[in-house]
Write a structure and sequence with these properties.
Elements (H helix, E strand, L loop, with lengths): L1 E6 L5 E10 L3 H12 L4 E5 L23 H14 L3 E4 L2 E6 L5 E5 L3 E9 L3 E3 L13 E2 L2 H4 L8 E4 L3 H9 L7 E4 L9 H8 L3 E4 L3 E6 L5 E6 L4 E3 L2 E4 L3 E3 L2 H5 L23 E3 L10 H19 L6 H7 L12 H12 L1
Parallel strand pairs: 2-3, 2-7, 3-4, 7-18, 9-16, 10-11, 10-16, 11-12
Antiparallel strand pairs: 1-2, 5-6, 6-7, 8-17, 13-14, 14-15
Protein name: NAD(P)/FAD-dependent oxidoreductase
Keywords: Flavoprotein, Oxidoreductase
Organism: Halonotius terrestris
Length: about 350
């Protein structure tokens, strides 16, 4: 990467990259890994945290042991991107502007970057119910596909009042015969048709709110005490209150959204704005680490096809002449240096 000749609005020199990835989750890091290894100067700007970082254990990722935490998983991925020559910056991107040349200027608390392509991988935050709640990952969960396996033959709750809560509760009957829906005293919002489905399945609906909870020595939930004094034992369960998608930067760039609040993106991650890609949980699809990684990989490959120097087109060859031996390879000095260091390790 290099510094531009001008200065940003904040008065500091901008660092110049071909690709800027916002978000250091599985999708963003996968996109950065591909663009970096495919010879494009890449920066990942990550504020930290995120859903993957909350994982106490890693599930459903082939080749990754269960005992690897989300933070360990992300740190390994971050180290890989760095080892290939990519930069990773801890910061929060507050603004993106596009100049007349089509390049993107990203401003953070301590970062000013200009890039040819932008990858949005900020994901979403789960809406949390009100306390009292067990610890996330030890009785409070948000991903059925990740965690249902651990609740086989266990007593399970599902919190919520909408369609998702009702359907997750019925799906959990594939894993256990003890499933309750906890409305926490709120009115049911699912449809009459869904109500008939719930009534046709062995699911109890508990309307009283939770007064307190008890946990075991290992920190896992053991039971809830409800406001009517009843105590019900649970190993754990799922909170289904919706998602808050981090689409502020996307909409500021003019990216269109789906009805569910996700960013519209094609199979390669391209949004409705040229040069802007969206990957991972900010887009439609299963919110799973391997799925997010695949989306990031596809975006990285697509960006490479757009940015790579060779082969030249016939039009370029006619205008510029044939490619000379001194013109190749088309690798930046920074990536080249990192590749040489990597090969020597």
């Amino acid at each position: 990467m290099s510094e531009t000749d001008g200065e940003s609005a904040g008065g500091t020199d901008e660092q110049e990259y071909e690709v800027a990835v916002i978000g250091g989750g599985p999708a963003g890091l996968s996109a950065a890994l591909y663009t970096t290894r495919l010879s494009h100067d890449t920066v990942v700007i990550d504020r930290g945290g995120g859903r993957a970082a909350m994982m106490l254990d890693t599930h459903n990722v082939i080749g990754v042991p269960e005992e690897i935490s989300g933070n360990e998983f992300l740190q390994t991925a971050t180290d890989q991107v760095k080892s290939y020559g990519g930069d990773v910056i801890r910061d929060f991107v507050e603004e993106i502007e596009r100049d007349d040349d089509g390049r993107f200027h990203l401003s953070g608390n301590n970062t000013d970057v200009v890039a040819d392509r932008v990858v949005l991988g900020m994901g979403f935050s789960d809406e949390r119910p009100e306390p009292p709640l067990p610890r996330t990952g030890k009785g409070l969960h948000y991903c059925l596909h990740c965690d249902a396996y651990m609740f086989i033959d266990e007593s399970v709750y599902v919190m919520g009042t909408g369609e998702a809560a009702a359907h997750v509760a019925m799906i959990m009957l594939n894993f256990t015969d003890e499933v309750d829906i906890l409305t926490r005293g709120d009115e049911i919002e699912w449809s009459d048709e869904t109500q008939k489905l719930v009534e046709g399945h062995p699911v109890d609906v508990i309307h009283e709110d939770i007064e307190s909870l008890s946990k075991g020595e290992d920190g896992w939930l053991e039971s809830f005490t409800f406001e009517d004094g009843t105590v019900r034992e649970y190993r754990g369960g799922f909170a289904m209150y919706g998602a808050d998608y981090n689409t502020g930067l996307a909409t500021s760039l003019g990216c269109e959204l789906n009805d569910d609040g996700t960013v519209i993106a094609d199979d390669h991650g391209q949004t409705t704005v040229d040069g802007v890609y969206a990957v991972g949980d900010i887009t439609q699809g299963h919110n799973q680490v391997p799925v997010a990684m695949g989306k990031g990989a596809r975006a990285g490959l697509s960006i490479h096809k757009e940015l790579r120097t060779f082969p030249k087109s016939l039009e370029e060859l006619e205008a510029e002449g044939p490619v000379g031996e001194t013109d190749v390879p088309g690798v930046s000095p920074d990536i080249r240096e990192a590749a040489e260091a990597f090969a020597d390790d």
